[in-house]
Amino acid sequence: MPKPSPISPTVDFDRDGVQHGFLRLPYSRDDSAWGSVMIPICVVRNGEGPTALLTGANHGDEYEGPLALYELARTLEPGQVSGTVIIVPAMNYPAFRAGTRTSPIDKGNMNRSFPGRPDGTVTEKIADYFQRELLPRADLVFDFHSGGRTLDFLPYCAAHILPDKAQEAKAFAAVEAFSAPYSMKMREIDAVGMYDTAAEEMGKVFITTELGGGGTARAETVRIARRGIANVLRHAGILDGAVEKTPTRWLDMPSGDCFIFAEEDGMFETMADLGEDVHEGMVIARIHSIGRTGGPPQEIRAKMSGLLAARHFPGLIKTGDCMCVVAR
Amino acid sequence: MPKPSPISPTVDFDRDGVQHGFLRLPYSRDDSAWGSVMIPICVVRNGEGPTALLTGANHGDEYEGPLALYELARTLEPGQVSGTVIIVPAMNYPAFRAGTRTSPIDKGNMNRSFPGRPDGTVTEKIADYFQRELLPRADLVFDFHSGGRTLDFLPYCAAHILPDKAQEAKAFAAVEAFSAPYSMKMREIDAVGMYDTAAEEMGKVFITTELGGGGTARAETVRIARRGIANVLRHAGILDGAVEKTPTRWLDMPSGDCFIFAEEDGMFETMADLGEDVHEGMVIARIHSIGRTGGPPQEIRAKMSGLLAARHFPGLIKTGDCMCVVAR
Amino acid sequence: MPKPSPISPTVDFDRDGVQHGFLRLPYSRDDSAWGSVMIPICVVRNGEGPTALLTGANHGDEYEGPLALYELARTLEPGQVSGTVIIVPAMNYPAFRAGTRTSPIDKGNMNRSFPGRPDGTVTEKIADYFQRELLPRADLVFDFHSGGRTLDFLPYCAAHILPDKAQEAKAFAAVEAFSAPYSMKMREIDAVGMYDTAAEEMGKVFITTELGGGGTARAETVRIARRGIANVLRHAGILDGAVEKTPTRWLDMPSGDCFIFAEEDGMFETMADLGEDVHEGMVIARIHSIGRTGGPPQEIRAKMSGLLAARHFPGLIKTGDCMCVVAR
Amino acid sequence: MPKPSPISPTVDFDRDGVQHGFLRLPYSRDDSAWGSVMIPICVVRNGEGPTALLTGANHGDEYEGPLALYELARTLEPGQVSGTVIIVPAMNYPAFRAGTRTSPIDKGNMNRSFPGRPDGTVTEKIADYFQRELLPRADLVFDFHSGGRTLDFLPYCAAHILPDKAQEAKAFAAVEAFSAPYSMKMREIDAVGMYDTAAEEMGKVFITTELGGGGTARAETVRIARRGIANVLRHAGILDGAVEKTPTRWLDMPSGDCFIFAEEDGMFETMADLGEDVHEGMVIARIHSIGRTGGPPQEIRAKMSGLLAARHFPGLIKTGDCMCVVAR
Amino acid sequence: MPKPSPISPTVDFDRDGVQHGFLRLPYSRDDSAWGSVMIPICVVRNGEGPTALLTGANHGDEYEGPLALYELARTLEPGQVSGTVIIVPAMNYPAFRAGTRTSPIDKGNMNRSFPGRPDGTVTEKIADYFQRELLPRADLVFDFHSGGRTLDFLPYCAAHILPDKAQEAKAFAAVEAFSAPYSMKMREIDAVGMYDTAAEEMGKVFITTELGGGGTARAETVRIARRGIANVLRHAGILDGAVEKTPTRWLDMPSGDCFIFAEEDGMFETMADLGEDVHEGMVIARIHSIGRTGGPPQEIRAKMSGLLAARHFPGLIKTGDCMCVVAR
Amino acid sequence: MPKPSPISPTVDFDRDGVQHGFLRLPYSRDDSAWGSVMIPICVVRNGEGPTALLTGANHGDEYEGPLALYELARTLEPGQVSGTVIIVPAMNYPAFRAGTRTSPIDKGNMNRSFPGRPDGTVTEKIADYFQRELLPRADLVFDFHSGGRTLDFLPYCAAHILPDKAQEAKAFAAVEAFSAPYSMKMREIDAVGMYDTAAEEMGKVFITTELGGGGTARAETVRIARRGIANVLRHAGILDGAVEKTPTRWLDMPSGDCFIFAEEDGMFETMADLGEDVHEGMVIARIHSIGRTGGPPQEIRAKMSGLLAARHFPGLIKTGDCMCVVAR
């Protein structure tokens, strides 16, 4: 029999109204013998109805989600809602406080930690709580992502191509409602440990985004995120009001040829900016050796035509880093 | 009498042709008793004529300069040149290798280390070598900057408002030749220790840039940098060919009201993107407390009208950080 | 079938007399390919009779236990003993050497690592050795604790309220014999992974203490520890001589209302000192925001009446830290 | 000619009323190119009259001063004051935020950094600002100290034995007014770099304290600090109301024999608690070797009779640490 | 059912000719969201025939193996080969890049990580790939070791005494072919987690070496390694040409008395150099206390006669470190 | 007027007999408010006569000196001596404890810190004490060196070619007396900050050694060191008994061509071992790129003929490291 979760919430998920509280996770350590990790949570409930579970900072250095969700938690009123909205604006809260992708406590990548363990690391304990306590309550699961400090993305909303086509159709309809400039049908090559997979395997409607990156947020991408999440809640009948639709361009990443990985260390130069057209065989990036002047850069050529959907962000690059992603 | 510099160059500044070499600075340390810092340098000389001294990575996390200068060093041929071009694409080379603003060796901020010291820290020794060996050789001094990992700027070329109006006019003419989208007349409030000041006090024509930031470079900003530096060399008569002029918009930062500093820690939200218009009294940024949901963000208002010229880049902000810069 | 423990003792547990030796645990690492952790151990045996297993520094920053036990190991003579005394004065020896609660090698909290694993981390290997080799030898298990660097406690000896009332009665009798100023009947909310639980589940008489804290020891608390452990051994018939009884005050922590956790970061102020009376609703602590002057502190009120039994020790406090414990 | 201080205050020292603001010190670094250190400051002024300069956290791990001064800044009203009270509750603010004695930025010990340098380290820049801007404004200078994380003291208020006996008498009278349980006449063997010396050399009345230690504060020592600082301001005629006198015991540290330093590493045991009587030749402390059981501890004997005024706090001790201080 | 390995090779093991490529292991982390570890691999194949799997840097600070294997990979031509040679010159590549025994990513000791886990740490994922993908392809497995930064060894080639005497005989014949100055018949006391064991349990011929140490390589030991590996491949019929035999001296480590562990911290002095004769009872090493002058060193005596086969390398030693190994 | 040194010795330099004590240097820090660095010192004096000042661990990772000098301090008897022997076996004691070249406190390289400063860093304070207190007492100054963790040397004793030929002759005679296998006449290119220079400028006879390296010591090099220092003291008439002469080979490093520096990062391979003959143009070292297999190594050729006197020790090398030294 699995152990109970060590996490105790200070909110009551079945109470009507707005509650601002914490998921308290005991965490004993050198600088606090009886310390805890306190993950902010907000629950807005108004009677029976569907439940949406909204999360940001699954990776701690991605900001459009937290900027949309702290604001939503602050402004959402029960009278606007039918059902329940559970908001965890910073899912991997220790990582979010540190401004890093993974947790500074255990280097845990939240999105590779599912289904988690009640007696595992801090990150695994949080995953386990979502797996066994929060996901089962949800009908709709929305998880915000952006590129973080080391990647930059075109702004898109996305859902997975799924074996259950009814489930898939619901998810793509929600993506359409989000109305990001781009929308993506994702094939996951390696879905082990993902929050996405955990939700989808329970039959939930799961939607996610990539809305920029570089460890920052722009005014424009935050506007996309805020309008999008309201649209999705309206589309689901949880928030009153009509969806504010704007046109979106659907993208696809059909094969492993979309991804190009560095085989040298050096200074990274992208030859195209995000959203620009790329054609097969074109030099789309270069890696410059920095140890001396005068040597030729390594030239990297596109393996397929399309548009530049994502790129390595920092000025330096290491062997094995993903340099660019071409989508169609 | 000052001590001689411990730095020895492996290039001969008075020899015609192209040389790729190093400035070798002995640096004894735990992991290399007889180690050295080897700073790449390229000299392209073709007979008598003016000397341009070109530098990038004065701050190690700024990439448009190095991307332009490693390329220039690789491609410049003596036949194109009248005089001498000295290229140090990564001035604070230890910082550049680490991808950080300051040197990982001594935390030295190169642009606050002038005039340097021959028996000081590694950063001070490099500054001293520029002060006593390289600057005196130069007629034109060009130092590339961008915002680095923690700031983002509109792309502009800039020179200082100077007491010597003839010197100032030469600098502004070179800025005009660079042809960045924006051009800036800078007033420096605190010029102590700057490379700029060191060059200007010797009567040199000194020009600099801010060309983006965030610790990355875009294809577009790199194109601006490469075209700009060629233009400046052509304008100076060192490189053959005509200046490729494009229109530029001149900006000014007239007072301390241009700069706004954070008085809280939290998650940073800019309400305008770079280049957007801003008017006095408008909320241009907000700081969100992250410890719990439900609290109001702190609102920051513009102290003057203009356009947003620079902003804090990372998603989190700390008390005392510069949040935004408004220019006119 | 479980693997054998990698730990080899240099003492013989069945030999009469005094032996000072080590538990040697191979630990290969970057700074010692064939290194080991050497945990000091002392065995004093005199014929047949009960066995007491005495431990300190289960948490490495707690000193009353090690100060009592290194002294006991140095001075105990076989002639005074009937049976066997096994003394491990620093159970989590790597943590003890570092002066930290958890092990610097693996961040292991010894008291959450039971039953351990023979092929786990260093801390888990030590736990496994106690679980499978030392605990089975013992009749009486005494584990010294204090508050460590981040908590401070009233001095008390304690045992758990247990389902087996005969086992419980033996433990409380031993607590009574210890004769600390205070005595505690503990209810453990979350007993997973504790040494206490491991011992109790084997049916052993398990006793523990909290004797101060702050990462130090006072002359007075060391006297309590030394007199107490001698009393317990006399009470158990292992050490000759009569128990030196002094009056003790029994305490109880009846519910979760005893514990108060911080919901803000800041500077911590306790409004009562240890042992002072506290009544429900009284402000027992305040948290001061340190970023600027002039703001009101957050006031924390007692949820029940009693006396202050424990408190957060350092001057600064973080969200989630236990601030104070009220006992009755 | 000395450079101007880079610090700019956001308060006006000559304006009547209460102001809460900052000393802003630009501090460019890897994680904030245009960052600053923002040191909280409060000025309460009511017309002409003497000026008191009150400081805490000269060492960042000492809490009685900050607890008294943030509270005083929050509650002091101009109507109660004649003259000016300048409050900097956390003088070495970076150290205070980190909870460490010295600054995490430059390891600067504020009390060894005077007179400071405007172009030095962050700690030296703060010292320089006090030296050239704040001390000259003051008549009375009060600097709170406690033992910090590694020492523990009897609570006393103190002033130096000075060559100028009139200045000394004023200081001792203020110490008497403070009414701590103990009062100390200090001889400073090595006064180089101290804030005390900087103030005294300008002829100011300088008073200080030691009020406990261990990196914490007790309710009792905070009460002593709050009552004491009010008393000193009343005694100086700056705060209205009468001094609340309580008896104090005067102490003296006549020679180097008061201080005993460790000559071994190991576990520290004090044989007396603070305030207990000590006589020459008595074993007042022991150092236990921890690497194995069975060895004799090193015994340390008092070199003079008196009472134990201070002690090493942590459970472990290193060669060269001050173990105990005997006063008379 | 076990999960598939996350590692993808860029070489085709069944293709004839020379291929230089990578084992790509996805590794998401703070400084590269979509990063990978890229382990260099070379495959030289010429038709059917036996397969040799050659590895270096199982421990990352051992250099004879990588120096032999990068060279072999660079120079081996298909025409010289019958069958397949798979070369992974730096098995624990992250450790090798860092110059450390264990991986800087997870502190994994590769030689204690077998059989590995596809969803474990980076080191465990590499072990799993060898266990399930590479070892099954091999007939002959050769793994280079030296002493690394903390041990120094006589140069020897070695194989284990095995229960299957036919397998053992093949291994010893290959050792003989290697022709190192010394050859060793090894008894492994604790074989859990070793690569050796993984290979031997599959019935492979497994050979290894110790060829010096100290975290360096000498010209002489590199010559031994290069000649030896060519000899072994010739002996196996994979490389054409005759074995270049030179005399070797066979050694044995018959019991635990061969190994001596330090029981003190201090400065280490060996009284014999590698290869010198040692007799039982002789002082073979001393540990000097460094805290003060004048104290006697601890003397360590040999427990058996033989020659000094290995020693602790660094000048300082810690309790628990292996000081010396005597072989016969 | 210079400030007095903060260092206080616990020995009396003018007292006859053997004294073991400390140089106590107050060092306040986060983990010890009133801490000190305690540098072991031994003084052996027997009436009037010359004074020898003997030091080891000027660089903290060099062991032949400390191994010779702790032993000498332990065994030297006043009756054997005429005059005074001052022994500081670990001059940069904090570095020596850490096993690093430079001080872990301030990264100070002792041999570049002279003449030091009484109010500087810990390393500068030690240098100042030698400069102003110890060197003036000495007639003969002997400073042991070896290669440390990153270099390895042929064993030699050395003195500088000096302008004062009488002083030089005395030094070379002492070198001859030392009787190392090799002897060196050194030309110092950059003598700034060296202990050697400080001593020579006072007219002292200064001798030094290089006796191996790699951060270890061999039995043979320790024997050379012990016999050598006794010989030098006998030669100086301080120790009774006759010099035990053995043949030595004199070497010279005539120009900068002796030293070769790496211009690539990679894996280092020496093509000759220490003491082997080298001729101009021969490949004496190679640097292998480790990122992929198949690439050619960089070949480094000797710039002059001679023998290999020193080499880079670790298996990896960085651009700027000294690779090898050829002597004649």
Just name the CATH architecture of the largest domain in chain A.
Answer: 3-Layer(aba) Sandwich
Coarse shape of chain A: globular
Structural class of chain A: alpha+beta
Binned strand content of chain A: 25-35%
Question: What is the count of DSSP helices of chain A, taking H or I runs of 4+ residues?
Answer: 6
Radius of gyration of chain A: 20 Å
Number of structural units classed as domains of chain A: 2
- Determine the CATH superfamily of the largest domain in chain A: Zn peptidases
Helix-strand sequence of chain A? EEEEHEHHEEEHEHEHEEEEEEEEE
Pair of chains with the largest interface and how many residues each contributes: A-B, 51 and 51 residues
